[in-house]
Design a protein that fits this description.
single chain; Rossmann fold; 12 strands; Xaa-Pro dipeptidyl-peptidase C-terminal domain-containing protein; 15% strand; dipeptidyl-peptidase activity; Xaa-Pro_dipept_C; AB_hydrolase_fold; 9 helices; Jelly Rolls; 4-stranded mixed sheet; globular; Galactose-bd-like_sf; 357 residues; alpha+beta
């Protein structure tokens, strides 16, 4: 993760970088996605981060400075200053690194053809130690560090795993994508035609306990049925008009789920089941059905998600793109109870996936 920041300083000796599963904006991508503080992972990992000197207590800083300021701005890498070649790797499933890796690749000035992106569909550690991955890393490093004429420059600019490994594209975002707009209908469907939308209001009890199941009792769901085999690759965003009758703020969580033709909500197993069983361990022994594996992000991926706190809804036009909106997070703009307010929530990158069986 530090490679983004080091490369932005352009040290004379730096030949290339290889940020594998990186992070480039600690506030927006991990600690406070959408303005909603998340202490869980950093609270868990902090006791294991050792060094010869003292380290920052980012959880305490988030509690002291809940909105964007100079401290958090300093933790957003100035990727537009990077000029050296880069191999950027990201997994579709991690809850920590996907957005930062893709934002990093998009923000690098692409006037030189020496940047490569690989987006894979397994758990990050599983991919890092595969023989084909190690060979790919070595090929990149040998080309730039040793000057070997090994054909690396012929590698596609973007390689995306979408059930079929390494679909090859000339750029990211993928230029061949057809963007579509789907509108929420009060009958619980998503419609591509405005004429088919049924207007009205839908509601749910937001303080009901989340069951972390495939269909929590208090959530709103909207379904779209693909009529032909379709692959989704790229970013998505949602524009919602919401209100809360009792409070001046609310946290909104969105997720895209895949459902098969029989209506069963599906999950993606991040590590091949046979390999998990061979390794064994807590929660793995005796499991015969992959869907009974531990419901941990490292093992199962349920789909791309979006998070936004209503008071953090202001868009930062200076760093946003048409496919990648960013919020300012510099102040809290409360809403009046019962007042509708547009909220634009970035979702994490959609994995390339065959959504129709």
């Amino acid at each position: 993760m530090t490679q983004w920041f080091i490369a932005a300083e352009r040290p004379a000796h730096l030949t290339c970088i290889m940020p594998l599963e990186g992070c480039s904006d600690a506030y927006r991508e991990t600690l406070c996605r959408g303005g909603v503080p998340s202490h869980g992972f950093f609270g868990f990992i902090s006791p294991f981060l050792y060094g010869s000197q003292q380290r920052e207590d980012v959880i305490a800083m988030l509690q002291k400075y809940p909105v964007m300021n100079e401290y958090w701005q300093d933790k957003r890498a100035d990727i537009s200053s990077i000029r050296c070649p880069a191999y950027v790797l990201a997994s579709i499933s991690t809850g920590l690194h996907t957005v930062g890796s893709l934002r990093g690749f998009e923000d690098i000035p692409h006037d030189k053809k020496c940047f490569r992106l690989r987006l894979h569909s397994t758990q990050e550690w599983h991919d890092l130690y595969q023989k084909h991955s190690v060979a790919d890393f070595k090929k990149f490093l040998d080309f730039y560090l040793k000057g070997e004429n090994n054909g690396w420059e012929q590698t596609a600019r973007a390689r995306i795993s979408a059930n079929i490994d390494n679909l090859l594209f000339a750029a990211w975002p993928v230029p061949e994508i057809n963007n579509i707009t789907l509108r929420l209908s009060v009958d619980g469907t998503l419609q591509s035609s405005f004429d088919l939308v049924k207007s009205g209001q839908s509601s749910y009890i937001s303080d009901a306990k989340a069951e972390n199941d495939d269909a929590d009792p208090e959530e709103l769901s909207f379904t779209y049925t693909f009529t032909q085999r379709t692959r989704l690759i790229g970013n998505s965003k949602a524009v919602l008009y919401m209100s809360c009758p009792d409070h001046s703020d609310l946290d909104v969580f969105l997720i895209l789920r895949k459902v098969d033709k029989d209506g069963r909500v599906l999950r993606h197993i991040n590590i091949p089941f046979a390999e998990l069983k061979a390794v064994g361990g807590d929660g793995i022994e005796g499991v015969e059905d992959p869907l009974n594996l531990p419901r941990l992000n490292a093992v199962q991926y349920v789909g791309p998600s979006g998070i936004l706190r209503a008071s953090h809804r202001e868009i930062d036009a200076s760093i946003s793109k048409h496919n990648f909106p960013h919020h300012k997070h510099t102040n809290e703009e409360k809403i009046q109870p019962g007042q509708h307010s547009p909220q634009q929530s970035i979702k994490w990158v959609l994995e390339g996936s065959d959504w129709i069986d």
